[in-house]
Amino acid sequence: MNQRKSSHKRKHSTKRRPHHYHWAWPVGGLLMLALYAWAFYYFFVGPTGFRWRAMYGDANYPLGYEIHGIDISHYQGDIDWHKLERAKITGCPLRFVFIKSTEGASQIDDRFAINFRQARQHGFIRGVYHFWSNTSGPREQAYHFLDNVKLENGDLPPVLDIEHKPADRTTEEFQQDVLLWLHIVEDRYHVKPILYTYYKFKEQYLNTTAFEQYPYWIAHYYVPEVTYQGQWRFWQHTDAGRLPGIKGEVDLDIYNGSYYDLLQLCIGANQE
Prior knowledge:
This protein is an alpha/beta fold. It has eight helices and ten strands.
């Protein structure tokens, strides 16, 4: 009985529906499409975007840089290091390799030990990065990194890869957490750790003078040049590089300076 009454009311109410309802849905759809297009451009394609995979063909390599490198993890699988050491990018040899070591407070990359050893044996300048986790505390993560990574003179400073902020921490609390990790690791190696992230994240969450003292490794893909106005040392310019010795794609990086400058950045370079 109630169901019939409600159906009867809906039937009569339909006759009274204003004419503007007929074009409300198409207009709403167009607005949603426009919003989606703007968001896609803002977060992925724009001048300070992070990850944008080119739709047609491969991205061009940035011009004007001679010091090239890569960053690797277990995703690259078994690497043929003999082939890799002979690889060239725009006629320039590979100089450095960043290697994933740890993540959070317990994970260790499956290929870290062999990649770490092989990089040094084949003449590359080594760097090692820790991937930040929002499910572990900064102190636990720092000591997990230090317990499993033994950097040597000639290696690049340790790297903190940070791309996400925990929802349950304020920006100020998050910044203190990041600084705690950096300070603990700096105390061990007596060099400023390298901070890896993308520009939008740094601008939103790490935009204080406290972080300006750390070498910045910026991730920004498929653009001819970095538009970030601050100082930066490394630029990860694509996640779709192809090199002999590596099956599949690999991240490619450049150093913003000379080979001598890169060597001076390494651990032990300024010891008397």
